[in-house]
Structure formats: structure tokens, C-alpha cells
């Protein structure tokens, strides 16, 4: 089981003795939760852009992206709507391998993940630099379906699922923690399920 950091509340267990974040129930299912329509993405023009506070921006097409070394991780997934799936296998490209394509400036402390359809979500750079964070195109050995974020989904196992953005197409490096789509609508800026960081009352 993956390590959990910064626990501040009582940790629950399921019937098999596996640790579960407080307020969550365990399921073997993987429900589809999406705000708005699924974007129609033309893979011939698909692009992934790494930009912001970097020495030189990089844009990859689908062939270039898939030509990078792939990683496979086993990880939990915790949805803010209170379900947790504790057994998932993701395959894709490591966040850290993508960062090697650019040189973030010293003042870059946060990232914004950008997606087709206009969705965004923010995270501290030290969180996404963990070795279990990746941009996935397969889940449990099968290609992602469009409703689960195909062709590419950002996966951050140690955060609630809204941080694992669907239809990802870019990383923006920032010096300030700017709220993304759900964060501007009252969701927590960090979203740690082990601290039950679901919502917050004010920006900043």
C-alpha cells in the first residue's frame, strides 16, 4: 500500500483491514463523474504543452508523447463523493519524465494541469513530483475510454479524484497557487483525502 503523508484524523479500515481515508467507503467499481460534455478530440491535431515558468516551452504531438518511456503503477483512487477504489493499475508517462524535457525556473512552486474542454486543476510542485504521479492512457490493462479521460488522464493517487484531471493536454508551471476549475467553486486547494480536505470557505 502506498505511503500516506500528513495524517491529522482517525484512519478507518475496510473489512479486509485496508486503511481507508476518513469518510470514504470502498468499492470495486469506478464510477464516471464528469462536469459537462465529453470533449471531441482529434488525435491528428492532439498536442501536449509544457509551459509557464520554464526556460523553454515544449509541445508534443501524440506520437512524440507515446515515444517516451512508459511506467506502470498500482495505486488507490479516492473520490471526493466518498468512494474509494483501492486497487488500480495505471500505465502512462511519469510526470517527472515530462519535467525533464524542460527546465522549470527556481520560482516555479506550483503547477496547473490544463485539459481539453477547458478544465484545470492546481497542485504544489512538490506533490506532483512524487514518483507515483503520471499521465495515464491505460487503466487496469485497458486503454482509457473517453468518459474516463481518454486519451490522457492525470493521476495523483494521494489526492482526491478531481485533481486527477481527464483529457489532460498541458502543464503550466507557476509561482503562485492559482485555483483551478473546481477550486474556484469551493473545493479545497490541496485536496488531501487523509486530511479530508474536501472544501474550503475562502480563496487564498
Task: Give the SSE layout.
Layout: E1 12-13, E2 19-20, E3 25-26, E4 47-52, E5 58-61, H1 62-66, E6 71-78, E7 83-94, H2 95-99, E8 110-115, E9 120-124, H3 125-128, E10 134-139, E11 142-143, E12 153-155, E13 168-174
Parallel strand pairs: 3-7, 4-13
Antiparallel strand pairs: 1-2, 4-5, 6-7, 7-10, 8-9, 8-13, 10-11, 10-12
What is the compact description of this entry?
The chain has 204 residues and is mostly beta strands.
Provide an overview of this structure.
The chain is mainly beta and 204 residues long. The chain has a single domain, classed as Oxidoreductase, molybdopterin-binding domain (Sulfite Oxidase, Chain A, domain 2), CATH 3.90.420. It has three helices and 13 strands; from the N terminus they run E-E-E-E-E-H-E-E-H-E-E-H-E-E-E-E. The longest helix is centred in the first third of the chain and has 5 residues, at 62-66. The protein is globular.
Regarding CATH, which class?
Alpha Beta
Mean of all residue-level pLDDT scores: 90
Please report the distance between the alpha carbons of the first and last residues.
33 Å
Spans with pLDDT under 50 lasting ≥5 residues?
Answer: 1-11
Give the proportion of residues in helices: under 10%
CATH architecture: Alpha-Beta Complex
- How would you characterize the largest beta sheet? 6 strands, mixed
Strand-pairing-aware structural class? mainly beta
Described by its quaternary structure, the protein is single chain
Amino acid at each position: 500500500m502506498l505511503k500516506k503523508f500528513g495524517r491529522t484524523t482517525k484512519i478507518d479500515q475496510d473489512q479486509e483491514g485496508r486503511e481507508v481515508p476518513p469518510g470514504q467507503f470502498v468499492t470495486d467499481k469506478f464510477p464516471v463523474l464528469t462536469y459537462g460534455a465529453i470533449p471531441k478530440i482529434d488525435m491528428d491535431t492532439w498536442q501536449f504543452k509544457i509551459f509557464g515558468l520554464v526556460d523553454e516551452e515544449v509541445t508534443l504531438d501524440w506520437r512524440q508523447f507515446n515515444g517516451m518511456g512508459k511506467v506502470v503503477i498500482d495505486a488507490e483512487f479516492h473520490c471526493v463523493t466518498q468512494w474509494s477504489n483501492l486497487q488500480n493499475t495505471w500505465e502512462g508517462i511519469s510526470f517527472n519524465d515530462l519535467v525533464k524535457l524542460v527546465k522549470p525556473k527556481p520560482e516555479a512552486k506550483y503547477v496547473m494541469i490544463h485539459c481539453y474542454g477547458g478544465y484545470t486543476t492546481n497542485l504544489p510542485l512538490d506533490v506532483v513530483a512524487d514518483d507515483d504521479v503520471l499521465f495515464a492512457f491505460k487503466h487496469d490493462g485497458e486503454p482509457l475510454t473517453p468518459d474516463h479521460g481518454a486519451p490522457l488522464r492525470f493521476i495523483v493517487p494521494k489526492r482526491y479524484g478531481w485533481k486527477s484531471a481527464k483529457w489532460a493536454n498541458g502543464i503550466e508551471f507557476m509561482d503562485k497557487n492559482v485555483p483551478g476549475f473546481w477550486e474556484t467553486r469551493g473545493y479545497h486547494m490541496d485536496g488531501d483525502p487523509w486530511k479530508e480536505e474536501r472544501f474550503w470557505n475562502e480563496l487564498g
